TrEMBL record:
Pfam family, one: Glyco_hydro_32N
Biological process according to GO: sucrose catabolic process
Keyword terms of this UniProt record: Glycosidase, Hydrolase, Signal
Domain named Glycosyl hydrolase family 32 C-terminal: residues: 386-501
SMART domains: Glyco_32 (SM00640)
SUPFAM superfamilies: Arabinanase/levansucrase/invertase, Concanavalin A-like lectins/glucanases
PANTHER family for the chain: EXOINULINASE INUD (AFU_ORTHOLOGUE AFUA_5G00480)
Protein name, entry field: Glycoside hydrolase family 32 protein
Glycosyl hydrolase family 32 N-terminal domain ranges (all copies): 40-346
UniProt record similarity statement: Belongs to the glycosyl hydrolase 32 family.
Species this chain originates from: Niastella caeni
């Protein structure tokens, strides 16, 4: 009997070991798929587009996202869910919101309703409230124009489970086809919630005391900014500039972005609790690369403004050559304001925590670069890397990532045009869409003599932060074999005060 018991215990332990080993393998195996981002958030499988409902609560950052769990292309959209405590290591969570009789769950935001204005709170539990667009496919197919409406869901267990509000929709469509992507925040001056909503070719602001009853306040943008496409996924927030409260209005637009297809524009001005008034009529872009879209900020992060976008472009998002999943997010970025020639500009930097992803680091000082095989010094690239450079004169330069198939991605600065560029003409598989294999450009805004540049390189993406964070470019690429070489060239002899190359920490921690 005792022997039997021992055998049983051993068998059980073995089974447990196997199961957890399998589980472990299942959760990490997908990181070996071709082109799979190693340090950026990706869904385990299937389709992902916009980040949604980003909110910070009790030390946890929540990322919801547009997700079609049945396929690698766009379809019945749910809100997928992931969480992180440090903004760099993500845990997948169960799907938060499923389509229902009112439609698919399109983009939106989430707030912490501390004062329980919604009345969803029970027994002192603070409700997290999601405000999203219900997209009725039926209504669309019937040729109606009111198929997008705003609805609510709430969670009383810190985002784990969600209940849709019985009174949905809370904001009905007045007959505008594109009527979506509510971004809600508490406004102290109005003493109300303010909803910033994308309404075709402009923004409409609504206010509410309780998240359920909404009143139209004002409209902005019909005659301002870029209008090469539909306005989507807006965001309104304030940033402090030398003690002054300055308002920023982000408006994503598709198509009509600065390098074709989708892009993120923004306006700087004042918001008096009712109306947004821009300081000027200029169109500014938060990211000039082809692959940052639908980016908005987290709510409830105090004075910090943390931004994250979808690393793709509607021009080709559904045909990029990944197999089991489609879509990745940018690294979280911290936003601040800078003033240049009397104008406010948004500056972006990767959140400091991104540095914790990298371990082995090589540092060089006072280098003169004409033609430098960097990997001869650092060793071949075997995964993600971060490159930081600083100098005191701006000169032409290029950084080429390449592989043994003679595929290459070139990132650089063209002094004669005062432009940065990312050239993916020969970056690998570019044939899935006619406009993918291109050279993309971005102006340099910084007026400083100095030169700074941070490059975050992952398997299938690069993010460039330069010119005091005022020029940002994000681009994705699909080489036939991972890039392993880094070469730096400058026909003018670039003088670098410092050059740091750091490689992803091993073993990977997922
Ligand atoms: C932006 C967008 C939103 C919409 C969502 C649908 O990429 O088109 O306007 O809510 O995607 O997934």
């Amino acid at each position: 009997m005792l022997l039997l018991k021992h055998l049983f215990t051993i068998a059980f332990a073995f089974h447990f070991f196997l199961c957890s080993a399998q589980k472990q393998a299942a959760t990490t195996l997908y990181y070996h798929e071709p082109h799979r981002s190693q340090i950026h958030f990706t869904p385990k499988e299937h389709w992902m587009n916009d980040p949604n409902g980003m909110v910070h609560y009790n030390g946890v950052y929540h990322l919801f996202y547009q997700h079609h769990p049945g396929s690698t292309v766009f379809g019945p959209i749910h809100w997928g869910h992931a969480t992180t405590r440090d903004l760099i290591h993500w845990q997948h969570q169960p799907i938060a919101l499923y389509p229902d009789s009112l439609g698919w769950i399109f983009s939106g935001s989430a707030v912490v309703d501390y004062k329980n204005t919604s009345g969803f709170g029970r027994q002192g539990k603070v409700p997290l409230v999601a405000i999203f667009t219900h997209h009725s496919v039926k209504g669309e197919q019937e040729g109606r124009s009111d198929y997008q409406n705003q609805s609510l869901a709430y969670s009383l267990d810190e985002g784990k489970t969600w209940t849709k509000y019985k009174g949905n929709p809370v904001l009905k469509n007045p007959g505008i086809k594109d009527f979506r992507d509510p971004k809600v925040s508490w406004n102290e001056v109005a003493d109300k919630w303010i909803m910033t909503l994308a309404t075709l070719d402009h923004i409409t602001f609504y206010s509410s005391p309780n998240l359920k009853d909404w009143t139209k306040e004002s409209a902005f943008g019909k005659e301002t900014g870029a209008h090469g496409g539909v306005w989507e996924c807006p965001d309104l927030f304030s940033l402090n500039y030398q003690g002054k409260k300055i308002w920023v209005l982000i408006v994503n637009i598709n198509p009509g972005g600065p390098n074709g297809g989708s892009g993120t524009q923004y306006f700087v001005g004042d918001f008096d609790g009712h109306q947004f008034t821009p300081f000027d009529k200029e169109t500014r872009w938060l990211d000039y690369g082809p692959d940052e879209y639908a980016g908005v900020t987290f709510s409830n992060t105090g004075n910090r403004k943390l931004f994250l976008g979808w690393m793709s472009n509607w021009q080709y998002a559904q045909v990029v050559p990944t197999q089991k999943w489609r879509g990745a997010m940018t690294v979280p970025r911290e936003l601040s304001l800078k003033k240049l020639n009397g104008k406010y500009l948004l500056a972006s930097t990767p959140v400091a925590a991104v540095n914790n992803l990298f371990g082995r680091s090589l540092q060089f000082q006072n280098m003169l670069v004409t033609d430098l095989d960097l990997t001869a010094k650092t060793g071949k690239l075997t995964g993600p890397a971060i490159i930081k450079m600083a100098g005191d004169t701006m000169k032409d330069f290029s950084i080429t990532l390449s592989n043994s198939l003679d595929e290459q991605l070139v990132i650089g600065f063209d002094k004669s045009r005062n432009e940065f560029f990312i050239d993916r003409t020969r970056s690998g598989n570019v044939g899935f869409e006619k406009d993918f294999g291109k050279r993309h450009m971005a102006p340099r805004f910084s007026t400083s003599q100095n030169f700074d540049c941070t490059l975050i390189i992952d398997k299938a993406s690069v993010e460039l932060f330069t010119g005091d964070g005022l020029t940002v470019m994000t681009a994705i690429f699909f080489p036939g074999e991972d890039y392993s070489n880094i070469r730096m060239q400058s026909k003018e002899e670039l003088k670098l005060k410092s050059l740091d190359v750091s490689f992803q920490k091993q073993p990977k921690q997922y």
